[in-house]
Amino acid sequence: GKRLPGVPAGKRAPSAPERPRQVSHAIFCFLMRSQAHLPRRVSFASGLAFIAWRRIVQRIAPVDLACVQALNLSLTMNIRPFKRPQPPRLGVLLLNLGGPEKLADVEPFLRNLFSDPSIIRLPVAALQRPVGWLIAKLRRRKSMRLYEKIGGGSPQRRITTEQAAALQDELARQGIGARVYVGMVCWHPLIESAFQQILQDRVTRLVVLPLFPHFSVTTTGAAAKKLIHCFDRHGGAREIRRSYVTHYETEPGYIAALTDLIAEEMRQFPDPRPESIQLLFSAHSIPTKYVERGDPYLRHHERTIAAVMTALERRLGVRPPHCLSFQSKVGPVRWLEPSTEDAIRQLARAGREQALTVPISFVSEHIETLYELDIQYQALAREVGIPHFRRVPALNCHRSFIRGLAALVRARLAAGYQFHAAEQAAGG
Fold first, then answer.
1. What is the pLDDT of residue 165?
2. Are strands 388-391 and 354-359 parallel, antiparallel or unpaired?
3. With CB atoms counted within 10 Å of each terminal CB, which end of the chain scores lower, N or C?
4. Number of H helices, E strands in the chain
């Protein structure tokens, strides 16, 4: 008749035989609620403890059979341990054209290059591959002789790998743990191989960063198409959140690196006064029809030059004379002009004795810088009467350039922007 502490008024206190049962039931409910949140080993130990308690209680009062059966069923189930949400696995994919590393690679590299309609587009699509193979056969010997003159192969893969390592280190220094991959359009490591490695590493967030500061369907567009095709063929890859950098022609780190290299090279001339040195910005040419259809390639180069000239004027106090030309034309169709060869001849006719070429399209050394600018155009400059003709080194792993790439990655991660617009541009 005496009310026990904790028992509300009007409620009958449980009898002595009922109390162990209620305690047993309470323990059971607690264990059932907690098992899903405990590691499996702890969950099993708690179940054993309850069974021991059950045997003690059975000597005092019968235990609810349904309760015991439910617990036994719970102990035999394969209950997964509670897992905390994992942070995203970050990846950065650097895209570039690629180049043959040895002479035996030259012909298959040319086949890949001329068979890609995004790079060299033929009027009849069905002829793209056979004509590409034919062009590769016809150009093989000439191209091999050129690569022999720069050491037997392109250093682009080595330099791009070094850029990837430098970018990964810079991101880590800034607190971003990401693995940086390299994928090439026309030679190894191909974009398809990099994509497979990204899948194996279970990357969940990917920033795609072309090493082409200026967008064109022939460069960034060609690389994007290949990567998009990889994602389309692999359904599981659609879980990867991906963001693309489409162009960065005025990125501060990129402009700072160009400005540093130009200013350093200008100091090497016999007359280092800025007004006495002609800057010749040399870009890789593309067919004019792409620009006429809206390709922003030319406009992006003009923006880069304007930004560099502003930075040089701020640093040197005077704006050096400058002009833009285009190199590496292939085939009979009309390409962007003037050609670098014609520009050099024009500078000679104008009486320029000091000229500095700036490889504005190229962020690493390869055949266009090491042979065309350093050998072919150097010889032409001497021939036409320009005695002092120098070339600015490619950006390679310049500290400001790598920092600029890291800034682009940070911006993409912060924005979380999907590449729908860039995918449409790549398709055009």
1. 99
2. parallel
3. N
4. 16, 8
The pLDDT of residue 138: 94
Return the percentage of the chain with pLDDT > 70, whole number.
77
Non-local CB neighbours of 135 within 8 Å, separated by 6+ positions: 110, 114
Residue type, 348: A
Tokens 């056979």, residue?
A: 130
Domains of the chain in start order, with CATH, are: 18-76 (no CATH), 90-248+401-427 (3.40.50.1400), 252-391 (3.40.50.1400)
- Per-residue confidence band for 410, with pLDDT thresholds at 50, 70 and 90: very high
The pLDDT-based confidence of 23 (bands split at 50, 70, 90) is low
CA torsion sign, 198 to 404 to 412 to 409? positive
CA distance 359 to 262: 10
Decide: residue 163, CB within 10 A, 0-12 exposed, 13-18 middle, 19+ buried. buried
| Maximal CA-CA distance, the chain | 121
Question: What order do you get walking across the sheet with 205-210 strand by strand?
Answer: 178-184, 90-96, 205-210, 241-244
Token code pair at residue 135? 């062009």
Measured from the Cβ of residue 420, the count of other Cβ atoms closer than 10 Å reads 9
Q: What is the DSSP string of 355-370?
A: EEEEETT-SS--HIII
Q: Which residues of 320-329 are buried (b: 16+ CB within 10 A; e: fewer)?
A: bebebbbbbb
- Phi and psi at residue 102, to the nearest 5°: -145, 170
For residue 247, which phi and psi values (nearest 5 degrees)? Answer: -165, 160
Q: How far is it, in rounded angstroms, from Cα 69 to Cα 380?
A: 93
Amino acid at 60: I
Phi, psi of 389 (to 5 degrees): -130, 115
- Rounded to whole angstroms, the Cα distance separating 318 from 297 reads 28
- 3-class DSSP state for residue 206? strand
Tokens of 334: 């009309």
pLDDT digits over 63-113, tens only? Answer: 454 444 544 444 444 445 555 566 789 999 999 999 999 999 999 999 999
Query: Residue 222's closest CA among 233, 211, 235?
Result: 211
pLDDT value at position 417?
Answer: 47
